[in-house]
Amino acid sequence: xxxxxxxKGLIGGQLAERLDRSGHDVAALGRxxxxxxxxxxxxxxxxxxxxxVVDLTNSPSWEDNDVLAFFRNSTEHLLTAEEAAGxxxxxxxxxxxxxxxxxxxxxxxKVAQEDLVKAGPIPYSxxxxxxxxxxxxxxxxxxxQDDTVHATPAHLQPIASGDVVTHLAEIVVGTPLGGTVxxxxxxxxxxxxxxxxxxxxxxxxxxxxxxxxxxxxxxxxDNSAITPTPGANAWIAPTTFDxxxxxxxx
Length: 250
What we know:
The chain is of the alpha/beta class. The chain is 37% helix and 20% strand. The protein has eight helices and twelve strands. The protein has helices at residues 10-21, 43-47, 64-85, 105-119, 136-142, 161-172, 191-202, 241-248, and strands at 2-6, 25-29, 52-55, 89-95, 124-129, 144-145, 148-151, 155-156, 179-184, 189-190, 207-210, 235-236. The strands form three sheets. Strands 2-1-3-4-5-9-12 form a seven-stranded parallel beta sheet, sandwiched between helices. Helix 3 (64-85) packs parallel to helix 4. The longest helix has 22 residues, at 64-85.
């Protein structure tokens, strides 16, 4: 099976390696390979002969208008090229609860991406994931003022990127779902608690203050905002945050 992955970041690189080990013809492509999904540059040639396209692209800017334009333009260019090439399966990675956080411009943009895929000409699968363990440090940095992290006790149910790749790979080589699946880690934990556990593991000296109004990249959270949707039968990954922290210490 020929699989083209657009995006070579945390998930894209691991996914390409896993699919390659399974015997598939895989290409993971980014800007350094002459690809610009916002203009369409390089896409038609890249998807020629592909059976599956996986869109893991991400906006370089999180400003509301920029991120919306990025996902709209990129998705339209990809779907147009895929239709011309006869691609049979379009897969995207999105975010659990994106439609429940309209105050976040990034989440609105991801919903717009999903809507374009659903309305598009290519059989599709949408995989909505909770936040990755690897990004807890970035959440802490975003909430830092001086030497103090202001973190909400509202829950995430984060997941190891390796577990994301495990399930995503199964979706990629399977029959298009024509719908959405959710994946999540095994434990709902407050963001404040996640940051404290991270700092305990890494020896970070910053103080963590629990603050309900701290929010999440501009959006206010409650315990259900970006945790699995009740009744969605989310796939629950096996790796806990503490297990991941221990493995990360090597």
